[in-house]
Records
---
Amino acid sequence: MATITLKDDVTGKAVQMPVLEPTYGHPVVDIGKLAKEFGYFTYDPGFMSTASCQSTITYLDGDKGELMYRGYPIEQLAEQCNFLEVCYLLLYGELPSAEKKELFETSIARHNRIRENLRRFFYGFNHDAHPMAMMAAVVSSLSAFFHDRLDIHDYEHRMVTARRLIAKMPTIAAACYKHSIGDPAIYPRDDLSYTGNLLYMMFSLPGKRYEVDPIAEHALDVLFTLHADHEQNASTSTVRLAGSSGTNPYAAIAAGITCLWGPAHGGANEAVLRMLDQIGDIKNVDGFMAKVKDKNSNVRLMGFGHRVYKNFDPRAKIIKEICHQILDSYGHDPRLDLAMRLEEIALSDDYFIERKLYPNVDFYSGIIYSALKIPVEMFTVMFAIARTAGWITHWMEMITEKDQKIGRPRQLYIGQMRRDVTSMQERD
Ligand code: CMC
């Protein structure tokens, strides 16, 4: 095994640390005995150089712009498999046979309803509640309904929880949307596909005929595959950390949902559309880009840049193609022209080239959602439905780790030195 020798220049003490070899990617120095040997902790805000765990689920190479789930390239999965096959792959580690695929689809359909008393939760929310706020609360509440199968050390309990979550997310998402527009919630149908059902529950009305549009159904399915997992991103790491305390998986996934909501993460797709609406016209693009490059403005080109990708996000390439296909079918959206102009400027501008900022998964996804008549507030909810597959897979991997421990980072304390409490009269 390769090692690296760390030497304390003050004491002269030198200790060999093992270097762990990955299947792909950067070797990782195992610093587990650093504190014991030297009395030091490491300091790495934002995990810039720190691997938080070992994982067998997803690999991404940010320099090459490569993404794989369980070893399969994302381009092949998006082209040849549907979202539920990808969920199966994430959960079980292999693509399903025809028979296993059917069984899995049947099981997802069996779990896609939510209880009536859970449905009533929605009446407690104001009509203008953000759907992500409703979704986080309702998903967290699922633990109050399924405590019969919540033994986190039981394989079957974990798997049924995973299937329940994947199955119920579209139903919860559609109920959030229906509540926000004051329409009655629609019950899922077992004869529709996963994304067909979501569209049906969002856009049909009691008493009215509704035909699922196969173009929209397929576009959503591909988008969900692209969003299903992305190794140790902020929300997945949140799920792992929350779950490491032994809390129930619904609570851990709810923590992931709240983390995803932020504009630096899954909230970026909503932020991109708001940005395009704010720019409004091609003639305002140059002025906007000047603000993006101005250090004092705090304005960012939303949908650009990524902590890991320093090249094209492979998902963005696929999404851009779908975006064109969708707009060919549904009619032109001037925001696509704006987005393409922003991309064109950014890809030839030194500011973006030097910082290796490329379009990410969220740059074009909002335009597709918008063409499918999905409102802006629902964009991150769409992301959450898809990412649930990744979250729950990571939660299962974490909980079954040998010697699994509660996540407990250390800190560099830079606050006050010890001091004594003074009486009220002596305080300023
Ligand atoms: N527009 C303008 N400048 C940017 C942008 C951007 N979108 N992203 C990064 N920069 C600059 C940043 O100002 C900094 O410049 P300098 O070195 O001069 O200070 C440099 O690039 C490095 O940025 P950073 O914030 O240190 O990089 P990070 O790895 O911490 O942040 C990021 C990654 C995704 C949070 C960031 O690129 C960003 O805020 N992008 C916009 C939001 C977005 O699209 N998020 C979706 C990410 S993909 C989907 C997901 O993860 O959910």
---
Amino acid sequence: MKNVLSCVQPTGDLHLGNYFGAVQNWVKLQDEYNCLYGVVDYHSMTMPYNATLLRENTWKMVFYLLACGIKPENLFIQSLIPEHIELSWILGCTTSYGELTRMTQFKDKVDQLHETDKDAFVSLGLFAYPVLQAADILIYHADYVPIGKDQEQHLELSRNIAQRFNHQFGKEYFVHPAPLYTETPKILSPADPNKKMSKSLGEKHYINLFGEEDRVRKQIKSAVTDTGEAVEGEMSAGVKNLFELLRASKEMDAHDSLMADYLSNALRYSDLKEGVANAVIKLINPFRERLAILQVDEKNVKNQIHEASAEIRKRAQQTLREVRDITGLIV
Ligand code: AMP
């Protein structure tokens, strides 16, 4: 079986966009590949952060992913495997300053920092972030990395780093990781369907995967259906998004019947919203139930993830032993 690796930053809540766009796919991939999923807390240190919240959010993300169906043995916390940092240093010495300056995400994040404070602190960590990402991938010899288009440039950098390392040391050691594209829906903000559902826009712009039923229903009920820019005869972005949510939730009977109403100009938006709210609640209720069960057993679950990380760490340590040997460090 081929190796798959994907990582997520511990950013707090998970929303429907994260689920339909990434996590649902990760759960499925576990049947076909040797999957490893990392909650990458070292990466979260690259932007201004709060230490207490970082630790809280790291565990929160672990519990969320488990509740969604990620197997505990496939899940690790990055900072429990410090070999990622050691490899990142070594790979940093085969990465050029020039190629890092060309990373568009670095420029975007610097712009984001400067938006609120023109003198904002930009760390070396933020600049070197893609090298740590390459280390995350190469340390486990990942064949595939499920990514969206926004991560293409970083994966290409990982491949270049692997290639340069292999060339420099005259050995085909690192696998060249390939992207694994899966068709995933893009979910839009219920409050502004011209934008992607995202936490950074604020609370009303995302539907929490573990949200309270009342709040989720309210959010869907007040979802924007008409932004005032509708083109005659064309479905508005907000209505499209609601149909997309029905499709993504696999409620095709409700979808098809509401679509028939839409096509015959008989659709009441309140019915569409009711259908979507029911579908979303049906989807997320089992997640909330599983989360509650995991939380009752919090200590055991945390131990399990410590153990899984220790087991996964052995693979990282094996890679580092080989890399130290190849690169001339003392072994
Ligand atoms: P983020 O924390 O925003 O980087 O999101 C983590 C993952 O969730 C990304 O890799 C995206 O593939 C996915 N994702 C985030 N927002 C959306 C969205 N609105 N629709 C679909 N997928 C999304």
---
Amino acid sequence: MKSIATLLAATALTATSAQAVDLEVTHWWTSGGEAAAVAEFAKAFTERTDHTWVDGAIAGSGGTARPIMISRITGGDPMGATQFNHGRQAEELVEAGLMLDLTDVAEAEGWTDIVFPSSLLDSCTIDGRIYCVPVNIHSWQWIWLSNDAFAKIDTPVPTNWDEFVAAGPKLREAGIVPLAMGNQAWQTAGAFDVLSIAIAGVDAWRKVVVEKDGAAAAGAEYAKVFKAAADARALRAGSNVQDWNLATNMVITGKAGGQIMGDWAQGEFAVAEKVAGTDYTCLPGLGVNEVISTGGDAFYFPKNGDPAVEAAQKELASVMLSKEVQVAFNLKKGSLPVRGDVDLSTANDCMQKGLAILAKGNILPSGDQSLSPDTQGQIEDLMTEFWANDSITAEDAQERYADIIANAD
Ligand code: GAL
């Protein structure tokens, strides 16, 4: 027979854990499309639970926001939940014992049967325990083309990278910047990675980025990539913007012919009420190698110690993965859901292309899932220099890149 004290304590804990909590959620989703999407999470959490979503948006790119998130967690001022990308960005925080173990929720809800591809949950798993909830699949492997820009130069909208490059001079003559690209490290490094897969092919890319083979990075296939990157650098001249969504806006308004960018760009076209296939065209894999890379986002929950907060954190994880919320969030975000059992019939032409590639299994891990944040940082630094400085030749850049890969972890 349980003592009265034990029963009272259990009741108190239950009462506490049902206690309403204000949960601060940090993320870097501040563009129009991103804000519309994250509002779906906030609405669902506040409507479906007794808790309140306290929005902790951090302006700027992930590269700006992540150091702030990490220093708050390591500095004893943790938020309730935070965004990181799929992969290894929170690896050290988990290993330091600072992040909440979600395995009980994951097992109770069957996440291993729900999440597709399973590699997304693998990226949340360390020593057999699950520490994050994947919320979307964002693929970098796209170029977004302005149908207006190509109509202006009386040229069919390109169907692949070579046709896009060939249209460069006519776009220039018409006062249109061929390639829009913001001047931030993650954008130039991301675009380079997309060119790698399109130009060198999936096998060569895997050898370099997944197997970290320095010789392959120094080889003939990647020499073609660096040549294409030098071509792209010339096409990008005049794209004088910083943030990715300002570069996307150049395509939306026809000031640029195209942008190599992840499919979060779709959120911006949606907010501008542009229609895929009518106002803009998307080429997965630059129309060369149609693949989906599993970039995207997951939410992690710093340990808090208060059972009520921990219960609210686990409820948020559950809400984010629920069917209805997965559809509502991803349709606004321009990303694909992390579960295959949802109805996306309302997805637009470009999302349907992405879903078809996903269904075929033409899936690659993202660089964030393969390389350490330190190696990613070195590549971003090299790309910042290369894309900003014409005096760095393709050969010089390739030599330095191969050295980074040879020493990658
Ligand atoms: C990525 C993130 C996307 C997107 C993008 C630009 O790292 O996965 O959700 O928003 O940053 O902010």
---
Amino acid sequence: MSVHQNVKKITTHVLSAMKMKGEKIAMLTAYDYSMARILDNAGVDIILVGDSGANVMAGYNTTLPITLDEMINYASAVTRGVKRALVVVDLPFGSYQGNSKQALASAIRIMKETEAAAVKLEGGIEVSESVSRILSAGIPVMGHLGLTPQSINKFGTYAVRAQDEPEATKLLSDAHHLEELGCFGIVLEKIPAALGKKVAQELKIPMIGIGAGRYVDGQVLVLHDMLGLNNEFSPRFLRRYMNLFEDITNAVQQYITDVRANDFPNEKEQY
Ligand code: KIV
């Protein structure tokens, strides 16, 4: 029997065993109780309360405005709906870059107030001190390299990262560095598939890709994108499993028609 079928609760140790056995890890984002319950029941391994909530839940153009309080609100709703999956929460922009003491304080708030199992933060060697300090408090940390959306103002575009040799070399060395510090996994966002493959082969901890090709140890997508709730975002890496924007529009239009025609409620739908 495969590792993930054999466990009642996904832990960082289970993820490591899955990588060792060559079992791919399935991760999705969620920001609320109802969706988290569905994802957990469906058997997803990791639920990420991503700061992409800034875009898909709050309507901001970037992930920068979301606050630690808002992330904690989303995350505590998510954990109430989850029994099996590992819940990871993004440390939002401004909650860990100041210094490692601030990073630890933010991570502790997340762990205390949400009952999540781990935090994620963006960056490599630049965030080592924060990563070490959070880990020293017994809080599992996931890294995030490649396209790191909190640095969009430095990058200037959401284009594929690490296409040239110097950036690819830095990414590989950052990944090794995060592994040596003790991170349990790393998200690799929007990088060439060949680089994703190399990093996944060289490192022992799982590499979870989003636009990082098929050779990494698992995949993550933003839930609203894969369900087609958002019909304006269609990068090459996105596979849409539903078209909820259209389905919900049709359902709501049918409801409006029914109400206007006095067809809803009917005799059976009233007391
Ligand atoms: O915030 C998020 O949803 C993420 C994913 C894109 C991995 O970090």
